[in-house]
Amino acid sequence: RLDQSHITRAMIEGRHWPGVAAVVTWAAFACCAVAFAQGASERIEIREPGRTRAYDVALDELAVVSEDPAGLNVPAIAAGAPGAQVRHATGQFAILTFDTPAATRAELESRRAALGGPDLKVLPVLYRPGIERRDPAEAAFLTREIAVRIPEGENPTAWSARNGVSITRSLAIGETWYLVEPVADHGLAGLDAATDLLDSGATDAALPQ
Hints:
Blueprint: H1 4-12, E1 37-38, E2 41-48, E3 51-66, H2 74-79, E4 84-90, E5 93-98, H3 105-115, E6 120-127, E7 140-141, E8 146-149, H4 156-162, E9 165-170, E10 177-182, H5 189-199, E11 206-208
Antiparallel strand pairs: 1-2, 2-3, 3-5, 3-6, 4-5, 6-7, 8-10, 8-11, 9-10
């Protein structure tokens, strides 16, 4: 299982997000997804005050995470993904590489949905531009969850209902920090929802997990 609270804590404290050669701090973090085709990837630009950070969504890869303590059934995963190779597998985690990249985000989402199942999370794979694509240590994975800072004085339940997200739990990193999920269930739903929360002024910090 991905330890989202660990990732959030690391980002807010200014440490490295595991697998990403970049430091993102909460004070400077704001997110806006701007996508365009670029070979076997789709560029995501994360805007911060005075600059943007770019990530590439791999259109030929998906990460599979099992929440079953017995781990992944790698042969079954491979059989359910025609035209894909299991490039990296360890216990409850694997990266699949497709022989033919998805032409669009929608096609990648179709592949992701086809792989889903009980106790399985299928996640988009991101890389920083210029980083060696085939090194799993340089990969980042997006879930639907977002760490948000709800403005002081707001009722968290009312705030979440008004902004189309549901609260998963509070975070120990601050009194007004919560983990939320959007209603949408597609692979980049967390990223898109974080953008909407920031653009609407609902929060000044929304960190996709």
